[in-house]
């Protein structure tokens, strides 16, 4: 199930420098502490290397694909070189297209917009909303949460075999859960999809920052991910994969850049010839800084080597899971069980604590930033908590009182820039808060 090449060097490395590592935040007791950013799964801090590259380019900013001047030509070259860099990072095949978008959500909505008529989409209920919700123009089959990787493959195979009519089909699956961090059997799911004449898109938003993602090796048809998960600033994402559906569909957005030629007809209308390259779905002035930032992050991770990066992250994952397992009041959420391989994402609930209050206490008392709520994966979290599908609960802070059970969880997540001290502080804080009990949070300076 792992997508890590076992031949890669497993030497543990030091954390990579990231922005914000020296930020000091106030505590409820009036003191201050260096902020422990443990919410990488929402948005990872930008690598210092990426920020430096962007700052170095900024004075040379120019309009992409729009001018003959030096800065415009330089920016155009930089934009297209960034496309080539990201394509290499993803192992794109000859003939694949790579479209720069705004985010994973935008990428999957773009793919939804180019589906051939009659396409049936298969998606597990375990997906992030970015993968659950875009398919509004298609027939969608939602698959129940599997409890083993093998069950995931079997569930998909049966659903694909039973589909009628037998037309185009697309499977959408995550590479690593944004709730549990567990790795999914991507290669096996791709093989099942292809055996039944379906295509597969990999939501790599949580996978790409933690593991190498190779389209050819995984044998997926499309990959989508976001820059802000991959240690780059907000506002850019990627959809990469097979070109035929992208070329055949109407542009995702109509406008300059997508159009190759526009002419008036004698009857007063317009004739438009659209590009057949990635530009077809990149109308408007492209986000060259966002594309360059993603490319810079890809280069930084490649040069650091995923082997050492993964080895270090796995040591932190094991440390977190073993420490939480020794606290009886803490329940770690999992689909595939304690032996499942996972990236640096762990969600849990604490007996007697409302999850939003627990997260607030971590922040107010210890300067630790985590996430609480349903993580934009409401059906999955409800399943993991044993709640009914329509039970109340939403992303963010809840309104329950201290000591009441809430339909939400706490998520701690980390990556290549996380210092050991942040993880140790988090584990000490969890043990202390569980020992103290919920108490009057506001009296302690909580939010």
TrEMBL record:
**What name does this protein carry?**
Aminotransferase class V-fold PLP-dependent enzyme
Family matches, as SUPFAM superfamilies: PLP-dependent transferases
Family per record? Belongs to the class-V pyridoxal-phosphate-dependent aminotransferase family. Csd subfamily.
Query: What cofactors are annotated for this protein?
Result: pyridoxal 5'-phosphate
Ranges for domain Aminotransferase class V come to 38-426
Pfam (any one): Aminotran_5
Keyword tags: Aminotransferase, Pyridoxal phosphate, Transferase
**Which organism's genome codes for this protein?**
Streptantibioticus rubrisoli
Tell me what reaction this enzyme catalyses.
(sulfur carrier)-H + L-cysteine = (sulfur carrier)-SH + L-alanine
Statement: the UniProt record of this protein carries the keyword Transferase: yes
Q: Which GO terms describe its molecular function?
A: transaminase activity
């Amino acid at each position: 199930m792992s997508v890590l090449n076992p031949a890669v060097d497993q030497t543990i490395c030091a954390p990579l420098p990231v922005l914000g590592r020296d930020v000091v935040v106030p505590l409820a007791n009036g003191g201050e502490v260096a902020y422990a950013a443990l919410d990488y799964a929402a948005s990872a801090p930008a690598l210092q290397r990426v920020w430096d590259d962007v700052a170095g380019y900024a004075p040379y900013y120019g309009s992409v694909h729009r001018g003959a001047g030096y800065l415009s030509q330089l920016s155009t070259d930089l934009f297209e070189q960034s496309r080539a860099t990201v394509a290499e990072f993803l192992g794109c095949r000859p003939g694949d297209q790579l479209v720069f978008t705004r985010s994973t959500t935008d990428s999957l909505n773009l793919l939804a917009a180019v589906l051939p008529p009659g396409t049936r989409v298969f998606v597990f209920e375990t997906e992030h909303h970015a993968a659950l919700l875009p398919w509004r123009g298609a027939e969608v089959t939602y698959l129940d949460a599997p409890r083993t990787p093998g069950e995931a493959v079997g569930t998909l195979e049966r659903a694909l075999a039973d589909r009628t009519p037998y037309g185009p089909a697309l499977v959408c699956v995550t590479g690593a859960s944004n709730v549990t961090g567990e790795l999914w059997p991507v290669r096996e799911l791709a093989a099942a999809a292809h055996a039944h004449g379906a295509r597969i898109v990999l939501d790599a938003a949580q996978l790409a920052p933690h593991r190498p993602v190779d389209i050819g090796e995984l044998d997926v048809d499309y990959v989508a991910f976001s820059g802000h998960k991959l240690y780059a600033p907000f506002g850019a994402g990627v959809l990469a994969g097979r070109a035929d559906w992208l070329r055949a569909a109407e542009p995702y957005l109509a406008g300059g850049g997508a159009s190759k030629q526009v002419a008036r007809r004698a009857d007063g209308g317009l004739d438009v010839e659209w590009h057949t390259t990635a530009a077809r779905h990149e109308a408007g002035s492209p986000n060259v800084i966002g594309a360059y930032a993603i490319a810079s992050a890809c280069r930084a991770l490649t040069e650091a080597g995923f082997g050492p990066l993964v080895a270090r992250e796995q040591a932190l994952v094991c440390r977190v899971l073993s420490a939480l397992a020794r606290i009886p009041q803490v329940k770690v959420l999992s689909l595939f069980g304690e032996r499942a391989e996972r990236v640096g994402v762990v969600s849990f609930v604490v007996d007697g604590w409302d999850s939003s209050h627990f997260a607030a206490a971590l922040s107010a008392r210890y300067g630790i930033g985590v996430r609480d709520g349903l993580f934009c994966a409401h059906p999955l979290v409800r399943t993991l908590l044993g709640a009914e599908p329509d039970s109340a609960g939403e992303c963010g802070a809840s309104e329950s009182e201290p000591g009441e059970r809430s339909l939400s969880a706490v998520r701690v997540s980390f990556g290549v820039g996380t210092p050991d001290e942040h993880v140790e502080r988090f584990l000490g804080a969890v043990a202390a808060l569980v020992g103290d009990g919920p108490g009057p949070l506001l009296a302690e300076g909580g939010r």
